[in-house]
Specification:
This protein is mainly α. The protein is built from five helices and no strands.
């Protein structure tokens, strides 16, 4: 599973729409959608917000471990 697939899995487990999740992460919905579809990588800001707001393990998100 790729990091964008893991990100989508997190969002769905938390029962957020893309818009709700992007709002919670302080990024534009279109930018978030690009990350989830694999058109853009996970930025440092997005990663920081995932860790702070949702306590996501960055190693699992980036490497699946």
């Amino acid at each position: 599973m790729s990091e964008n697939e893991r990100l989508k899995e997190i969002r769905k487990l938390l029962d957020f729409t893309q818009r709700e999740f992007s709002d919670a992460l302080d990024i534009k919905q279109g930018s978030y959608s690009d990350v989830e579809r694999g058109k853009a990588g996970i930025s440092a800001v997005l990663l920081k917000n995932l860790i702070r707001r949702f306590r996501i393990n960055p190693l699992w998100l980036c490497e699946g471990e």
